[in-house]
Structure formats: C-alpha cells, structure tokens
C-alpha cells in the first residue's frame, strides 16, 4: 500500500491567492499516515463513528477535510438520506479539484461492518480521485482493504504511532487544539447564574422600552417612533462596536491577564435586544467585513429614511452589496481579518452564554456565518442548527443552512486556482 506524498496546507494558501495574503502556516504531511494523524487537528476534535475524507488536490495540498457520520451514510430504511450525504460529499470533493483521497473510517465496529457502511460512498469517491481507505479503531489502525499481515497486522498498528508523529507537533504549534469530541469542540462558554440574571434583567428592560416607543403615538413636531427607532438602532450598533473593542483588548492581553468573560452582562443584555432588529444584525455582519463599517453605519441610519431619500437608500444598498461580495464573490473575495473575527466571535458567544434563549437565533446565525467564512463548515452547521432550534422561522439561518447543505465554500476558496487548498471542512456534507 504505497502512500501518497502530499503537502498538507490547512490554511489553504497559494501564491497570489486571497488566502496567501493571510500568510497561513504550512505543515508538511509526508504520507497517508501523516494525514491520518492530522485529522483530529484539522477537524478540531477526535471523530467517532465517522467517515473522514481528506481530499488532496493535483497540486498536492489538502483541498478539503470533511466528516460524515456512519449512521448518516446508512440513511434509514429507504437510504435516501444516506444517498444525499454521499452526493454532497462527492460534490464537495469535485469542487476542490481532488486527485487523491485518504478515507479514514473511525469506528469501534468490526472491519466488515465498517466496509459495508462506507462501501457506496467510497465507490462514488473513486470516480473523483484515487481512494486510499483506512480503518481507525480504538485498538489500532490499518488499511481497510489490506489483507497482508506484514503490511497491516490483524489488530492494526498501535494508536501511539499516530499520536506521536512530527505532523502532530507541527499542527499543535499552529494553535490547532484537539477536543475529545465534536460536542466539546463546539460547546459555547458558560457563565454563572448571577451574570445571566443581570443580562436577562437588562434585556427585559430594553425590550419593554422598545415596545413602549413602538406603541407611542406620534405627537406634533416632536420625535416620532420612527426617530426613536433610528436612534435606537444607531445606539445598538455603537454598543456592538464598544463590546468588540472590549473583547479585542482582552484578547490582546492574553490568558491570565484578563478574560473575554469580563464583558458587562447588562450591556450584553441590551445588545441582545438591539440585535433582534434586522437592520442592526445586518450592520453587525457588515462590520466584520473589511471596509464594511461605513455601510454598516448607513444601514442603521437609513432603514427608516423618508421616501424622498430614495437615492440615499440606493447608495446604502450598493455599498452593502459590495461589502457582501467580499465574502461570497470569488472575483473580489477576501479572507476575514483574524483579529476582527476573533473579537466578534467572543462577543457573540458571550451573548449566547448570557441571555435567554429567545435572543439566541441572531448571534448563533452570525457565529455560523463567521465559521463558514473562515472555512469551518462543521462548526458553521452546528451553530446554524442551534439557531434553528432557537427560532425555526429565522430566515438568515435557513439561508445559510442551504449554503452549507450544498457544500458551497466562501468566495476566497472559490477564488483560488483549481487544485489549491481550501482548508478543513469547507462545507457541510453530512
């Protein structure tokens, strides 16, 4: 079983591509066993009862790392759900220009059962690129189809062989932590009841004040409910900017000196109510895109502009479209700024940790979008599913869920020349 000799580039950068501007670290994988060892680092957790495929492009870089649950491949009595998972997996592999595939079946089941479950998926993947299948079990790992005891002992090679390879140390130095499970990797931070109570009280007060303004009749030449709404949106966006600056300072100080959990609970509660306004949510989204602050501020200021200001609203829409294009359009796409994305993620995660569930849909959807933009389709799918549980009718979550189900990568991935790496888990495939 001669192994391939790919170079794993989890950052997905190529000279002259948008991703190259971020100067991602390059980690070399010298064999299929190196790629097997790298899987937990690339996913962020140790997969269980899963088929994990590592797609290597014709330029010998990792184009996609994707996981599908073995039970998802079975898909029930009709098999339709399993077929859909396989179709999405194959489509994602084709999209990145796959030449070789290392397919790892992580399971405690016997090899025969594992082979039966993944057989149809491996057959379809073989139409995309050369497939090298492996079985990774608790007692050891081996080639899934290997019958040569000199090559693969009956109980496999010892697990420590994967744990102590040079590629693991190199990936650890890039900051890629490994959780024991997907639930651990995706778990949001927790805060104590006192902080949650303060945030909830602030949110309740803000919601009551908003309703009081909405119900107040317009009186004479004074401020109208529309004026109050415009000021409230601007104030909400200012609050977001303050919270992001606070989180950015904490992140710069590093662990032990300060902590992002120091974000004021009352301000998080007020912001949760502000974020419930679609204009504020859209402004928050725009604010994390390079060059998006101006259209963000015009979005919160112009949502209730009078009819005669149609030209001004059109300018806002054009500016917004240009900003969003930097996320989705391969012709002008950019990578997220790491510092901005990290600070925004802290604020949104703390928001979910502090406020009641009725306010979770917006921040969870934005967290999902941030994860997708950064190439982490698994995390994105987890956050979007949680948003849908909080509010099944939340439209932006449904839209993003469709993007993930189709395994559509962000614009900066599609901007790369065919065969350039896209990093780990660029879309949800199962």
Structure description:
By secondary structure, this protein is an alpha+beta fold. The protein has 2 domains: 18-185, no CATH class; 190-359, no CATH class. Mean pLDDT is 80; it is low at 1-23 and 418-430. The protein has helices spanning 32-43, 70-74, 80-95, 111-125, 160-163, 166-173, 182-186, 193-215, 225-253, 265-275, 278-287, 293-302, 310-328, 338-354, 361-373, 377-390, 395-405, 411-414, and strands at residues 50-57, 62-69, 98-106, 130-137, 140-143. The relative contact order is 0.14. The chain has a 5-stranded mixed sheet, with helices on both faces. Strand 3, helix 4 and strand 4 (130-137) form a beta-alpha-beta unit.
Query: Which band does the percent of strand residues land in?
Result: 5-15%
Number of domains: 2
Strand order of the largest sheet: 2-1-3-4-5
Radius of gyration: 24 Å
Span of the ends, CA to CA: 28 Å
Major sheet description: 5 strands, mixed
Question: What is the H/E string?
Answer: HEEHHEHEEHHHHHHHHHHHHHH
Counting DSSP E segments of at least 2 residues, the number of strands comes to 5
Give the class from helix and strand content and strand pairing: alpha+beta
- Name the shape in a single word: elongated
Residue windows where pLDDT falls under 50 for at least 5 positions: 1-23, 418-430
Average pLDDT, rounded to a whole number, is 80
Q: Estimate percent helicity.
A: 40-55%
> Total number of helical segments?
18
Short account of what is shown:
By secondary structure, this protein is an alpha+beta fold.
List the helices and strands and how they pair.
Elements (H helix, E strand, L loop, with lengths): L31 H12 L6 E8 L4 E8 H5 L5 H16 L2 E9 L4 H15 L4 E8 L2 E4 L16 H4 L2 H8 L8 H5 L6 H23 L9 H29 L11 H11 L2 H10 L5 H10 L7 H19 L9 H17 L6 H13 L3 H14 L4 H11 L5 H4 L16
Parallel strand pairs: 3-4
Antiparallel strand pairs: 1-2, 1-3, 4-5
Helix pairs in contact: 1-6, 3-4, 8-9, 8-10, 9-10, 9-11, 9-12, 9-14, 10-14, 11-12, 12-13, 14-15, 15-16, 15-17, 16-17
């Amino acid at each position: 079983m001669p192994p391939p000799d790919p170079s794993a580039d989890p950052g997905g950068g190529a000279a002259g591509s948008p991703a190259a501007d971020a100067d991602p670290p390059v980690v070399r994988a010298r064999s299929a066993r190196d790629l097997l060892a790298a899987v937990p680092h690339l996913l962020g957790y140790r997969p269980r009862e899963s088929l994990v495929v590592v797609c290597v492009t014709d330029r010998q870089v990792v184009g996609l790392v994707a996981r599908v649950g073995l039970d998802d491949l079975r898909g029930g009595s009709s098999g339709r759900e399993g077929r859909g998972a396989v179709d999405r997996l194959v489509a994602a592999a084709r999209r990145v220009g796959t030449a070789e595939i290392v397919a790892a079946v992580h399971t405690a089941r016997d090899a025969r059962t594992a082979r039966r479950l993944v057989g149809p998926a491996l057959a379809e993947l073989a139409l995309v690129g050369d497939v090298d299948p492996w079985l990774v079990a608790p007692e050891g790992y081996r080639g899934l189809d290997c019958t040569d005891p000199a090559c693969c002992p009956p109980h496999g090679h010892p697990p420590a062989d994967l744990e102590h390879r040079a590629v693991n140390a190199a990936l650890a130095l890039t900051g890629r932590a490994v959780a024991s499970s997907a639930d651990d990797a995706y778990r949001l931070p927790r805060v104590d009841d006192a902080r949650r109570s303060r945030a909830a009280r602030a949110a309740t007060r803000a919601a009551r004040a908003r309703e009081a303004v909405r119900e107040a009749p317009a009186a004479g030449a004074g401020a109208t409910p529309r004026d109050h709404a415009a000021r409230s949106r601007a104030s909400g966006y200012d609050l977001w900017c303050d919270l992001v600056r606070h989180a950015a300072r904490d992140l710069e100080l590093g662990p032990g000196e300060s902590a992002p959990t120091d974000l004021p609970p009352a301000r998080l509660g007020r912001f949760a109510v502000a974020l419930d306004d679609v204009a504020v949510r859209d402004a928050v989204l725009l604010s994390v895109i390079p060059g998006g602050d101006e259209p963000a501020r015009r979005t919160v200021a112009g949502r209730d502009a009078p009819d005669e200001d149609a030209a001004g609203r059109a300018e806002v829409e054009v500016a917004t479209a240009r900003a969003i294009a930097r996320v989705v359009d391969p012709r002008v796409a950019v990578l997220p700024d790491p510092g901005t994305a990290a600070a925004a993620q802290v604020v949104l995660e703390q928001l979910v940790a502090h406020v009641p569930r009725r306010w979770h849909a917006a921040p969870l959807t934005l967290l999902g979008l941030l994860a997708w933009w950064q190439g982490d389709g698994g995390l994105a799918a987890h956050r979007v599913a949680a948003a849908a549980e909080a509010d099944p009718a939340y439209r932006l979550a449904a839209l993003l869920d469709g993007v993930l189900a189709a395994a559509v990568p962000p614009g900066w991935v599609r901007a790369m020349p065919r065969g350039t790496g896209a990093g780990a888990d660029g879309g949800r495939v199962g």
